[in-house]
Design goal:
The chain is mainly α. It has 3 domains: 38 residues; 32 residues, no CATH class; 76 residues, hypothetical protein PF0899 fold (2-Layer Sandwich), CATH 3.30.2320. The protein is built from 4 helices and 2 strands. Strands 1-2 form a two-stranded parallel ribbon.
Length: 148
């Protein structure tokens, strides 16, 4: 009898774990749909590839690309996609977005579009209820513009 109870608890725990994994996989799939493109760098093709240099080289290249991106015409769209991804990942009904001082006006302007896209993606995935109508605000606390 006791063995049966233990087995049932183990099976229940496994089912809960499997449900969590399925939820994470579904969330990741939504993010892949939004992104559309795999943008991971292929470091092995780089001329300066070495196991010890990869983190520094990756950080340097990332900061250079990010600096160029922030000056580009597609930057507001990039920020919108980041907000949508964040909303999908955290699934909260009240969210406060922090941005750099120079991005605060852009974030405030694109926020309604990001929320609309979030609703569209979540509705298409079959989600309903309060999570489709998050309260999203732009924080008065600003992030630093300096890279660390």
């Amino acid at each position: 009898m006791k063995d049966l109870e233990v087995e049932q608890r183990v099976n229940r725990s496994k089912a809960v774990g499997d449900a969590r994994v399925a939820k994470m996989n579904a969330r990741d799939l939504l993010l892949e749909v939004i992104n559309g493109v795999d943008r991971r760098p292929n470091l092995k093709d780089s001329k300066s590839y070495c196991l010890f240099c990869v983190p520094q080289q990756l950080k340097k290249e990332s900061l250079e690309k990010l600096a160029a991106l922030t000056k580009g015409a597609d930057y507001p769209n990039f920020l919108k996609k980041l907000i949508v991804q964040g909303l999908i990942k955290i699934e909260e009904t009240t969210v406060e977005v922090q941005a750099r001082a120079e991005d605060k006006a852009i974030v405030a302007r694109i926020l309604p579009e990001a929320i609309a896209e979030y609703r569209s993606v979540m509705s298409a995935a079959g989600h309903t209820g309060a999570r489709l109508n998050p309260t999203v605000t732009v924080s008065n606390n600003v992030l630093s513009s300096k890279s660390r």
